[in-house]
Amino acid sequence: TMNSCKGISARLVLVRRFVSTCTRQNTSTRVGIVGSGPAGFYTAHHLIKHNSNLHVDIFDRLPIPFGLVRYGVAPDHPDVKNVINQFSVLAESERCRFIGNVSLGKDITLAQLQPFYHALVLAYGADDDTFLRVPGEDLDGVLSARAFVGWYNGLPEHAHLNPDLSGDTAVIIGQGNVAIDVARMLLTPINILETTDICEHALEAFRKSSVRRVWLVGRRGPLQVAFTIKEFREMTKLPECLAVLDRADFEGVRELPADMPRPRKRLTELLVKTADAVGSEPATGSRKEWGLRFLRSPVAFLCDQQRRKVSGVKLEINKLEGDPLSARAVGTGHFETLDCSLALRSIGYKTKPVDKDVPFDLKGSIIPNLNGYVSTGLYCSGWVKTGPIGVILSTMNDAFETADTILNDLQHGNLPTPSDSGDVLELLFTLPGLHPTSFSDWKLIDQVEQSHGRPKGKPREKVTSLEMMMNIIRTHSAQN
Amino acid sequence: MAALLSSVVRKAPIALSHLLRRSVTGEPSAFSPIVSIALRWSAKGTNNRRIHSESCLHHGEYEWKDPKSPDEIVNVTFIDKDGQPRQVKGKVGDNILYLAHRHRIELEGACEASLACTTCHVYVDGEHLSKLQNATEEEEDLLDLAPCLAENSRLGCQIILTKELEGITLTVPKITRNFYVDGHVPQPH
Questions:
Q1: What span, in angstroms and rounded, lies between the C-alpha atoms of B147 and A93?
Q2: Which of A45, A467, B95, B173 is 20 to 30 Å from A101 by CA-CA measure?
């Protein structure tokens, strides 16, 4: 009887949290979306806007929503996160429901989920790494930039990364916006970081950090850098920090073809200008520096004989072949070594297959699709569809495209009828060990985070453990 | 259980006060514990929704106010994503992004006008392009990320209406194909 009482009260607790967000009628179109980052929310936004008889459930493997907006965008870029306001209004609207702490592939299969929906959209992004596959990649101190970003942003699975910041030089392999974010976080004065939503454990580590030099290493040249001008310009303006670019690297790019696209042209001009300014600024007061190393590919990470800790990276020097806009790096057989105490791999995120029933292109690491259509009633949106490149704008446009594909299929009667007319929550409650969370639960955690951040002058102090998140939710339920 | 609760929810908007009265008077009801929890929870949800939508309207409140006099009026034409012209009456001081939102023109503003995204990218007609204040370096850097960037590209959230901009035409970039082959125009939600 004890168990059945516990069972009943547990079910009460669970169901009531979802109750007022669910006003579905049985005749409406039901769409399920797996992933609550920008791709998931923008797909939902577009669907709900263009069809007044449509309901959306947005799932996430974490108990709380927003994906990379919360865990990928850097703490010192709070305005990029303003989009959360729009997503929150949507999540609290009558035709949208957030269901967290449910992982496709681990807690539930596609075959179990699909019967509840006319259309199911996979928007779960890319939470794996592209590896270099060189010797020494498994040494202490060789980390994934993606994990490092997760660490300072409080992603629970990376909360205990514990990077060693006790040396003076960090090398980042890769020259994209993630690499720049990591470099900037390593070099930003601590008083600036202190008023952001960076996690306390990372702030402590940065306070004690002795890293004062960061190299971003790319296998090609200045015309192939993947970072964008806003991020690069921000680096050039970092307080108490010098850009150390080698003028020699830019000899071939001072004269640019007239038909070069504007974004590449402006960025290259700024790179050249920055390189030309090196040496003309007073060096006093600059305790930190950063630089770009071009035409270098890592072939091995090195360590001391005694310890399995990285001490440097061996690089092969490349030359470029082909025209500037599609140049390839080719090794020359000449090598050099760069000393470092920390190495970060930032050569791309990667999507992984999560369910055997989802078609997957292993080579391209995406779900094969046509404008978001995968198979009958199955669609995809965001990085699982396009590959892990692009800012919120491009993901938004892509999400709208998938939503339009779904709306078109709905209009033409091409969506399957759900074989289960019940509520997916009824199934979720029967699965052992599953504790789905609602948007209201996120709001509880949101309040806790803000109230913990306020005394420290931070917008929030993120909860970085899944256990603590669930405790907050359970405690509140018990009290009410 | 779920069927029970969904029936409560369907009736809730109409029967809220009735159900409250029942639980207050202590009339026997097999449903009352569930109902009272649901009521407390749905009331909380409504309150929070109100607070949230208020804070979202804080940006763009000015654009919701009508012009106080004909002198203030600035006529603006938006060409929407489907190529349809929409003529609206703005006023001096209006932010183009929020004016578009007031008139339900589909122009996204993900970062809420803080120069941290490119979702409000618009094309400005030739005659008025030169009358705009020059884009800041920050805006130019962001425009570099806009798809189909053109000479007359600007960020909508950086355009503030003046009398000089009377008759300005702003075109929202076409991103996706128009699927509605029967001419159906999607209605704003």
A1: 31
A2: A45
Q: Do A397 and B147 touch (CB under 8 A)?
A: yes
Closest Cα in chain B to A270: B141
The answer to whether the CB of A227 falls within 8 A of the CB of A145 is no
Q: Which residues of B touch A438 (CB under 8 A)?
A: none
Judged by DSSP in three states, A428 sits in: helix
pTM of the predicted structure, to 2 decimals: 0.85
A77 at the B interface (CB within 8 A)?
Answer: yes
Closest CB to B41 among A11, A16, A88: A16
Per-residue burial over B102-123, b = 16 or more CB atoms within 10 Å of its CB, e = otherwise: ebebbbbbbbbbebbbbbbbbb
ipTM comes to 0.87
Averaged in consecutive runs of 10 residues, what is the pLDDT profile of chain A (480 residues)? Answer: 50 56 67 98 97 97 97 97 96 97 97 97 95 97 98 97 97 98 98 98 97 97 96 96 94 89 95 91 75 98 91 97 88 98 96 94 92 97 93 91 97 96 94 95 98 98 97 90
Closest chain A C-alpha to B127 CA, distance in angstroms: 23
Q: Which residues touch A117 (CB under 8 Å, ≥6 apart)? A: A30, A31, A32, A57, A377, A418
Q: How far apart are CA A29 and CA A31, in angstroms?
A: 7
